[in-house]
Amino acid sequence: MNKLETSFIHYLESIGYSQFNKAEKEIDNIQEGTTILAFKYKSGALIAGDRRLTTADLRVADDHLIKVLQVDDYSAIAISGAAGRGFKLAELFIKEVRHYEKIVGRPLSIKAKAKTLSFLVEKNMIDAKHGLIVSPILACYDTKIREGIVFNYDISGFAHMKSETRRPFATGGSGSSSAETILQKFFQDKDSKYTDKREAIKLAIDCIETASHISVATVGLNLDEGVYPIIKTISEDGVKDVTKEDLEIILQDE
Predict the structure, then answer these.
(1) Cα angle value 30/138/149 (rounded, 5°)
(2) CB 71 within 8 A of CB 94
(3) Geometric angle at alpha carbon 167, from 162 and 172, rounded to 5°
């Protein structure tokens, strides 16, 4: 099979379509994503994001945005940055991964997924210079080694794999420095191999809740208002949502 058959992205390029390099001169009202994070834990990987969407001048546009999306059975993506461009990039990435599996009959490898996302972020570089920055995080579960793997990306599309046990995390968005501080301290004291699912979920909540007190572009937890982080775990059982009911049970135990 050639690239046009197995790659949705290459097919779009062959017919002259590109979602990239179309930045408008006026970018004052770009809507931006906020705090996202991912890290390894005992059974796999966890990926999470808050729900707030803000304009470039930090006005709140929405507190119910979903920035964490399932890619396939064993991977998920979180986006921060320019929301419109970020969702288009994520949508194209998800279609590429699923198109390959449909045509070839097997999932795209983790390495190939990471490279594909790198390609898409790199293609967005010109627009990023105009303010349309997209900063994704990719979290996967490797069924061969039975371990979670996390990737984060810089503006050039460089993918950094966060697989080491003492710094097995990635953060992005306006609250990333707060989240990173909490994660760094946690994993200095505890190996990710010994962090169970419940503890991992509590850690994610703590990161986003703390970020919300420092960054106005991040919303924390308010279950009464139906505002809570989107959290997904990825393990040998696949991608699973942490529901509002799950959060209520975990928080009641504190």
Answers:
(1) 160
(2) yes
(3) 65
Asked if 228 and 244 count as a contact pair (C-beta separation under 8 A), the reply is yes
User: Of residues 34, 116, 195, 210, which has the active-site annotation?
Assistant: 34
- Side-chain half-sphere exposure of 77, counting CA atoms within 13 A: 26
What's the Cα-to-Cα distance from 116 to each of 38, 111, 200, rounded to whole Å?
Answer: 19, 9, 28
Q: What are phi and psi of 170, to 5 degrees?
A: -140, 145
DSSP label at residue 222: B
For the segment 221-237, what is each residue's pLDDT rounded down to a tens digit?
A: 888 888 899 999 999 99
Which CATH class, in words, describes the domain spanning 3-18+31-252?
alpha beta
d(CA 34, CA 215): 9
Helix (H, G, I), strand (E, B) or coil at 141: strand
Domain residues of the chain, as ranges?
3-18+31-252
Mean pLDDT of the chain: 86
Is residue 34 part of the annotated active site? The answer reads yes
C-alpha closest to that of 23 among 108, 82, 78, 109: 82
Q: How confident is the model at residue 203 (pLDDT cuts 50, 70, 90)?
A: very high
